[in-house]
Amino acid sequence: MDFVPSPATLLAFTGASFLLAITPGPDMALMLSRTLAGGRRLGFATIAGCSVGLVCHALLAGFGLSALLAASATAFAVAKMVGAVYLLWLAWQALRHGSALSMAPGEATPQQPWAAFLTGLGINLTNPKVVLFFVTFLPQFVDPADPHAAGQMLFLGFWFLVVGTPTCCVIVLTAERFTAFMRRSRRLTRAFDMSFAGLMGGFALRLLLAQAR
């Protein structure tokens, strides 16, 4: 299957996707708050909504980047340069402000599962950072000169979902312990922030060096 990246590329992408999945952020905060307020059913319903949103983003980013690559290699290179700047901004925000994770059990009102699903879907679809993330993240693992680059970008977009969804399910299953541990350990939270900043900074540097060559 030519659209499947090399084992080394897939392994690197899987590791990066897992780190991003466990890094605190708005989606995780929403899943945890719903779980703590209404139980695991609401947590899983929220995950389902966010996952459907990610499918939409993966399709849009994959087809959009593929069309851009087919239309103009120069435009694709400019998009990657802009992406490098965005990744550096994400790294700086993580170091300066820390994780966007608010986990207060009493803040969320219990909902029906379908309402939690729609909330997760709506939050994900209306978050422009998710679009920008996919546009800047996927090209890191695809060679524009590869004739199967378009298929690889689509494959990686869905592979991110394959890695992230089970990880989120485990977090929901251990929500109470996870939140209690995160509240107790500021060092761990800071380690998440440093890891995220390092990952984003490394991707940005890789993009900038590739453009320089």
Automatic annotation (TrEMBL):
Entry's localization field: Cell membrane
Keywords tagged on the record: Cell membrane, Membrane, Transmembrane, Transmembrane helix
GO molecular function per UniProt: amino acid transmembrane transporter activity
Protein topology in the membrane: Multi-pass membrane protein
Gene Ontology CC terms: plasma membrane
Residue spans crossing the bilayer: 6-30, 42-63, 69-92, 113-138, 150-173, 194-212
InterPro entries noted in UniProt: LeuE-type
PANTHER family (alphabetical): ARGININE EXPORTER PROTEIN ARGO, ARGININE EXPORTER PROTEIN ARGO-RELATED
UniProt-recorded name of the protein: LysE family translocator
Origin species: Alsobacter soli
